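During the no-cost extension, the postdoctoral fellow (Dr. R.K.) reprocessed legacy sequence entries with the updated structure-token encoder. One reprocessed record is reproduced below for audit purposes.
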Amino acid sequence: MTQIETSRPNSGKFFVDGRNIIGVDLATPEAFARNPSRVWEFYHYRRELMLSKSPNAAHIAIAECEARLSKQGRKVVVITQNIDELHKRAGSKAIYEIHGSLFKTRCTNCKHVAENYRSPICPALAGKGAPDPDTDDAKIPVEDLPRCEEFGCNGLLRPHVVWFGETLDSDILMEVNKELEICDLCLIVGTSSIVYPAALFAPQVAARGVPVAEFNTVVTDATTKFRFYFPGPCGTTLPPALARHESEVIF
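Re-encoded structure tokens follow.
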């Protein structure tokens, strides 16, 4: 099972490392402007952590379901707030990452977005960012932080993730809304249902009479709006729910 600490406001669950660095305090444009070294330490550590993780049974079940149903002319779309790319690594193809990805960068100068799986992302960040109370801030000079490689740019890179106070990509949201308008079944998997606008997606689908099933370890404020609720770890409950039904035609 893949277990990763989150940085989630208003849920009592924050990423706090041994140096009392709180994730939500770093996930802002203002924090990056004040101290890009500290912000990059935080994201570099999380990148390295995620590179050591593997998709769990729920990720794999979703990807296998997509592959199987696509052969029947049916479509499975993943709309995720997660930035870890575990759905992609599990094999899912149709993915909307509404909060971005740990493994993409965006140039603060030319705005170019690029995939980046380097480990470390730059030499100066090697071994940095661990949540160790005996570790001081690296205070890496800005010129040694990740830089844009587009010809003639060399601008400072930032993680291509949506920070608090920033708006979501309007193009992605438009595509997401199109999918929500045509879907005939919605599964909501392991979410707090408190981060907007994503918290509105499943209720929006349920409001037009489409079955919505929630898979979660806890009851949320939105649970009663849905037709089905499957309690327990998603890695346990989701695979049997998405397994091939005997009525399905095998191609």
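The chain has a mean pLDDT of 89. The CA atoms of residues 64 and 91 lie 8 Å apart. The remaining legacy entries will be reprocessed before the final report is submitted.
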